[in-house]
Amino acid sequence: MKIAVCVKQVPDSETRITLAAPGPELDRSGFTRVLNPYDAFAVEEAVRIKERLGADCEITAVTIGSDRAVETLKKDCLAVGCDRAIRVNEPALENAEPLQTAKVLAAVLRRGGYDLILTGKQAIDDDSAQVGPMLAELLDCAQATVVTKLELGDGTFTATCEIEGGAALVRGSLPAVVTCQKGLNEPRLPSLPNIMKAGMKPQETLTCADLGLEIPAARSRVTTYTPPPPRAACRMVADDDPAAAARELVRLLRDEAKVI
Amino acid sequence: MPNIAVFIEQSGGTAKKVAWQMTAEARRLVDRAGGEVWAVVLGDGAAAAEAGRHGAHRVFIAGDGDFATYNSETWTRALAAFVAARRPDLLLVGATAMGKDFAPRLAARLDAACVSDCVGLDFDGGFKLRRPIFAGKCFADVAVDAPVAVAGVRPNAFPLFAGGGADAPAESFDPGLGGFTPHATIVETLTSAEKKIELTEAEVIVSGGRGLKEAANYKLIETLAATMGAAAGASRAIVDAGWVPHSHQVGQTGKTVSPKLYVAVGISGAIQHLAGMSSSKCIVAINKDPNAPIFKTADYGIAADLFEVVPALDEAIRALD
User: Which of A64, A96, A82, A19 lies closest to A208 in space, CA to CA?
Assistant: First the structure.
């Protein structure tokens, strides 16, 4: 079985966005960058499948990113069990929209003939949650999104997908694109020796030209980044008697905020 | 003059609230910019009769095809056939589990612009869509540079139509599914035993965090939520500790919510949590520590022991009825 895991390096969830006023650019210089947390579930799931199947399974981590992304591929993918890595380095695709990303990833994936393509349910920077389903369409294959459980059969899969108020069981044929949700597994941490050894694993760096692909055009563009509206100062409801404080809070919510 | 198509998602024969929020906002936009609002219905047309009242000018219902159970590939094909035949400038899809599942696939099929989770919709010769990024730490205004765009719309971002629309004439369209077999299907839908209110659709949310001290105390949150007709949420800390399932998590690696009222109980206010809920209309914080960062985001705060305040709050709300 050939598994591809599509990953993205993103700013850590503790990142503060500093934006004093609306503007055309976002200062991304001070960000601490990590593997997208949802992609970690995808990497872990691939490694667990390989552990079940043994040697007859190869995992390729794929990303689009600058040299900065090499560390994520090495430490969070190769060091925890991926066998090889492919990185598309194309400065024009920095902050690309999801359809551009999906087209380039699809070109990489078409070369490999993968049975299973795993990725996170969304990246926590632009929060688009688009690349997975787009890949499935571009590759004309099955999809299962926001997956919390995945079982593989002979050329088939059954995925438990999170939906409002429950879950949907999706069954289909491989190849398939599966987007991973928290709860699917507990990602392992890389050990130091494995991080050292990860550098020995095959890593390929490509451009769109290498893929026989023109850089896909964007279909939309961000014109303005705006900070969230400032919130008014908190009104503290103080009373030694909790019951009195609670009653005053309820009064304020009903009469002043008008939300209950 | 832009024509805006709105996908009407149905659940058990009734339209999801977000569908009518979208027809309403689309109507407000075309009333300024010209053009029409088209409601697009797959399968049982029961919801179609209501579309006019919610702002739609016309209704399009898929003719042949099996739409009894949702399927990403079937929905993609049918709606792509609709877009190809009628050429709307924008197709709105609710940012629900279903909408998020097929909208990007549809956009890829149409080679269209695709903008997720919109909370603002404008037109000045081209569409301008506003959406939160970084789970709401920032907003992006996105301009569409394509003949057609698929936009996801966050539930509760827009109010319903108040203009008293007329009946909308309905016609059918060919979803182009002849001989099509999808690669995958939903074989079973599992609903949780208890009828819980979905976080992303809730008007009121009560969330608990570390301050609850132990898993068993989460029932305080569930009780207050039940009293308030609210959904029960949680901080990442108590989800990671295994107290509650991840489906309850609010924050950057959980759900991003914007209810009318968000009550944070025993939650200190880590930046990744604030990102997921700070667009709520009104925020209440209950926390023992008066210096907890959550109070900087809250509108109302009680700095006291949650084990005393929450039962008292429950009682005070019951006393309202």
Answer: A64
Min Cα separation B267/chain A (Å)? 15
Instruction: Please indicate whether, in this complex, the C-beta atoms of A221 and B141 are within 8 angstroms of each other.
Output: no
Q: What is the CATH topology of the domain spanning B4-173?
A: Rossmann fold (3.40.50)
- β-bridge mates for residue B38, sequence order: B5, B58
Residues in chain A within 8 Å Cβ distance of B183: 140-142, 172-173, 176
Contact B116 A128 (CB under 8 A): yes
Q: In chain A, what residues touch B281 (CB-CB under 8 Å)?
A: 257, 259
Chain B residues closer than 8 Å to A254 by CB = 320
Whether the CB of B191 is below 8 Å from some CB of chain A: the reply is yes
| DSSP label of A215 | P
Tell which B residues from 33 to 62 touch A, by Cβ distance under 8 Å.
none
B283 in contact with A, Cβ within 8 Å: yes
- The structural domains of chain A, with segments of one domain joined by +, span 2-211, 230-260
Burial of B90 (C-beta count, 10 Å sphere; 0-12/13-18/19+):
buried
What amino acid occupies position B288? K
B147-162 confidence digits (pLDDT tens): 999 999 999 899 999 9
- Fold annotation for A2-211: Rossmann fold (3.40.50)
- Domain B199-318 fold is Rossmann fold (3.40.50)
Nearest Cβ partner for A98 among B114, B296, B309: B114
Task: Give yes or no for a contact between B287 and B303, defined as CB atoms under 8 angstroms apart.
Answer: yes
What is the domain partition of chain B in residue ranges? 4-173, 199-318
**Nearest CA-CA partner of B284 in B271, B272, B304:** B304
> Is the Cβ of A144 closer than 8 Å to some Cβ of chain B?
yes
Model pLDDT for residues B234-286, shown as the tens digit of each residue: 999 999 999 999 999 999 999 999 899 999 999 999 999 999 999 899 999 99
Do residues A175 and A117 lie in contact, with contact meaning Cβ atoms separated by under 8 Å? yes
Query: Does the beta-carbon distance from A99 to B111 stay under 8 Å?
Result: yes
Q: How many helices and strands, by DSSP H and E, does chain B display? A: 8, 18
Is the CB of residue B273 less than 8 Å from the CB of residue B251? Answer: yes
Rounded-to-integer distance, Cα B98 and Cα B72, Å: 8
